[in-house]
Amino acid sequence: MTPPAAAPTAGLAQSRSYPDPAQPLPPEQANFARFVRYAQASALQAAGGAELPSAMLIDPVALDGKRRRCAVGEQLVAVIDLDPAGGQFAPPTSPAKAPGLALGLAVLREAGVEVAWLSDLATDQSGYVRTVLEQSGLDPRGQDIISLRRDEADMKDQRKASLGAITCIVAIAGDERPDFDMRFKYLRNPEAGAAIENLIGDGWFLIEPLLGK
Q1: Contacts of 24 (CB under 8 A, 6+ apart)
Q2: β-bridge partners, 69
Q3: What is d(CA 175, CA 211) in angstroms, rounded to the nearest whole number?
């Protein structure tokens, strides 16, 4: 799960706007566009020497919403959870091309943001996942990080935390709140999670699955 070397960030001020009217997004992916613009803006700030807030919380237990601060120069990463709500990603045999989504991910890579795909699929499925991402155009060069489950005890939150310890995870996209943090799954009183709920739209983005449910 070691991220590739950082891409150059020169010329970020001239990065293309997103989405492109020539490659429109389906209306239900408006939040994906927000996810891309947020991570792209974070890269621009980082290139100017800003110390960014991470999308990862400092305390593994507290519900205070306090975020880790990223060090200047850390590799920026945007995480996308592939698993559908309450289930596990099933790689389609013939994935449809998604040019509007692919453009957004290209914009992030152009800005120097690595893309990481997360799933509870076992690691022996990594070849299938890589093939689907390439065929759909979401990762045409096979350059993104893919993080899959090594064994039954290997939790997604633990893998995110490991990645977040060596990089700056600036944004996370998923189709349900536990994709951002498993604490959402165990909240008995929703009001107790108000501080972490505030991160939705500000580092955490609820999106429709990019490769179908």
Answers
A1: 100
A2: 53
A3: 12
Alpha carbon distance 131, 144 (integer Å): 12
Q: Rounded to whole angstroms, how far apart are CA atoms 51 and 205? A: 21
> In 60-88, which positions are buried (b, 16+ CB within 10 angstroms) versus exposed (e)?
eeebebebbebeeebbbbbbbbbbbeeee
Is the pTM here over 0.85, yes or no? yes
How many helices (H) does the chain have, and how many strands (E)? 5, 7
What are the residues whose beta carbons fall under 8 Å from the beta carbon of 145, sequence distance 6 or more? 1, 3, 4, 77, 114, 115, 116, 117, 163
Spatial distance between the Cα atoms of 42 and 27, rounded to a whole number of angstroms: 24
Instruction: Kindly report, residue by residue over 180-196, the tens digit of the pLDDT.
Output: 998 888 887 767 778 89
- Contact between residue 16 and residue 106 where contact means Cβ atoms under 8 Å apart: no
Encode burial over 14-34: b for 16+ CB neighbours within 10 A, e otherwise. ebeebbeeeeebeeebebbbb
Residue 125: Cβ-neighbour burial (10 angstroms; 0-12, 13-18, 19+): middle
State the burial class of residue 124 (Cβ atoms within 10 Å of its Cβ: 0-12, 13-18, 19+): exposed
Span 93-106, pLDDT tens digits: 999 999 999 999 99
Three-class secondary structure of residue 30 per DSSP: helix
